[in-house]
Amino acid sequence: MDPHNAIVKLCAAGMAAEAEGRGADAKALFEQAWEASHDDYEACIAAHYVARHQATPQATFEWNERALLRAQAIGDERVRDFLPSLYLNYAHSLEQLGRTREACEQYGLAAGRLDALPSGGYAQLVRGGVAAGLRRTCGGSDEANN
């Protein structure tokens, strides 16, 4: 992600607010990012973070779906390393709604994109989430470690 992009900056400020325990401030920054987004790239980033502050699993699902659809509409490499996380969150939302078969499929799509992640803590977090999701929804399959 482009650290100089205004939407990315707003989302980074929102993540900092989350880390400081200021959830309401974080939510407001993420919503501001959504309102200010100008294209699918910016909208997918903002929607991803707005999803984190929804009151219901259905609303979280809708924002995660919006983020994924916007990312898929981009058609270039700017979100390549972001897609595993988007699929992971979308799959988790499906799982929370009891849509286990669909969740398994989406965790599988996330697993298929894990090679795009740079090494480090973020990659480990996403890989672990995908592996756990596959185990929960796909009957023990652990494609994230293959």
Features:
146 residues
Write the SSE topology.
Layout: H1 6-19, H2 23-36, H3 40-50, H4 57-74, H5 83-96, H6 100-111, H7 121-137
Helix pairs in contact: 1-2, 1-3, 2-3, 3-4, 4-5, 5-6, 5-7, 6-7
Description of the molecule:
- The chain is mainly alpha-helical.
- It has a domain at 80-146.
- It is built from 7 helices and no strands.
- It is globular, with a radius of gyration of 15 Å.
- The protein starts with 5 loop residues before the first helix and ends in a 9-residue tail after the last helix.
- 40% of the residues are buried.
What is the succession of H and E elements? HHHHHHH
Number of helices: 7
Shape: globular
What value does the average pLDDT take? 92
- Structural class label: mainly alpha
Largest sheet: none
Query: Span between N and C termini?
Result: 27 Å
Count the E strands. Answer: 0
CA radius of gyration is 15 Å
Pick out the low-confidence regions.
141-146
Put the structure in a nutshell:
The chain is mostly helical.
